[in-house]
Specification:
It is a single chain. This protein is mainly α and about 120 residues long. It has two helices and no strands. The protein has one domain (about 35-125). It has helices at about 5-30, 30-125. The longest helix is centred in the middle third of the chain and has 92 residues, at about 30-125. The termini are far apart. The relative contact order is 0.03.
Length: about 120
Amino acid sequence: MKLDLEYPMKTILVLLILHSVIVMPALCQTPQNAVETEIAVIKTEIKNLKENVKNGFETIQKNFDRQNNIIIACIGIPLAILAISATVWGILAHKRSRKDYTLEKQIETLTQEIETLKQHRIVNP
């Protein structure tokens, strides 16, 4: 007895092809709600990412401003101290020079008086 398997094999092959062409794509498709849900999730994640970037930039800007203030303080405070010191030093030096000038004038006047007295004494002994 000889079995003819060619006909049933062709039928099975055709049914398998039809199954994979018609039924399988229908099973693999995602429902519209799932696609909309995924889109909403992606939009939310993008929004959160934008907020994180914005917050990170603001944090960096605050740190940059803080560092600028520290640098300005480190440079400005010593310069202010130097400027005040130079001004005080100049005022003190000016006062000393005025005192020296006054003393020199007094010495010059006294020297002239001594010379005058010497001349009077020499002339009128």
